[in-house]
Amino acid sequence: MPSRNILVVNCGSSSIKFALVNEADPHFPLSGLAERLGSEEAVLHLQRRNADKESVPIPGADHIAALARLLPIVETVAEGQLHGIGHRVVHGGEFFTAASLIDDEVLDAIRTTSPLAPLHNPANLQGIEAAMALFAQLPHVAVFDTAFHQTLPEHAFRYAVPDVLYREHGVRRYGFHGTSHRFVSRQAADMTGLAVGDSSWLTAHLGNGCSTCAIANGQSLDTSMGLTPLEGVAMGTRSGDVDPNLHSHLARTLGWSLEQIDRMLNHDSGVKGLSGLSNDMRTLEQAREQGHAGATLAIEVFCYRIAKSLAAMGCALSRLDGLIFTGGIGENSPLIRSRIVAHLKLLGLELDGEANARCIRGVGGMIHADGHPRVLVVPTNEERQIALDTLALLPE
Ligand code: AMP
Predict the structure, then answer these.
(1) Residue 287 needs a FRET pair 20 to 30 A away by CA distance; which of 77, 155, 319, 352 works?
(2) Which CATH number goes with the domain that contains 34?
(3) What is the residue with the minimal CA distance to atom 15 of ligand 1?
């Protein structure tokens, strides 16, 4: 059978990220981004393999218009052989424990889950509906950020709040970045010759959003994000855990509205808020080198909180086969990896400086010092995992 092609689509409220994935090709034949959709500045950025980036203005285009422009390009690059479309969906609630072939029932369930992800799920749905209208003959699959974490035991996913809030309103911990945690833990098993079904990992997905996860025998047992992606470690612009009374404190003392507090915690906090400078770790590392106090503090808080979260995740495991770093920061920053591991002496972790320095820009590998527990850098590839999940559900 010739190798199959899957288009992977990730729709935001005004953007569509996409990649054409060929099952036999480690590189994407085509990838890109349509952004500022719905405005006169709408633009489609395309990256064909071994070619320069291209930007096509698509003034006024909405999701459906952008996908309509994209379709013939995808068909040409795939030489008329497109086998299915995989859609990233942020929140699958308790409905979805795995990827699902999309039908009316699945669309209804994604719609029902929207109150849990009011910014993301409606945009994901809009993209799915537009793509289904345009590519009606193709199978469409939804792959959920939350699905991998549906194996969390109840003692890990419940909040200590009145039972009725869970039973009647779905208030519980769901976790996110599941596609990435799953992909890198499988890769790590491959890299170490361990069976997925008999291996035990701590993972740190460190990008603009950050989360940690404990994975045993291919199943997520705990993770740092919760009802929403705000819980857990400090991130680029998100605070991570704060005292839940912060809301009432700010409302009482400063008169802030819920919207103001929400914006502050999601968009003006994290390393951006702490440093007063940027959410971009490269900028912060450079500023730290030059003695910027805010950047230095932001990096210290960021690393300590991640280490603390990883140590806490250790409660879910009975042994450790390795700590895995991934995401833009986890894959590219020897400094951040070494600052995090420095706080994890209790787990016996120690890095090999040279190996740590070598793992940047897509180079993965083992970075622990001899005689110490494994630490690995594993480049994530959520698009490939979504394509694999889509392929697995294609009708025979
Ligand atoms: P992601 O959300 O996974 O794309 O990751 C974005 C984050 O990765 C940003 O904070 C970037 O600054 C960070 N990043 C990318 N390259 C590097 C690098 N060479 N050193 C440090 N951080 C990096």
Answers:
(1) 352
(2) 3.30.420.40
(3) 328
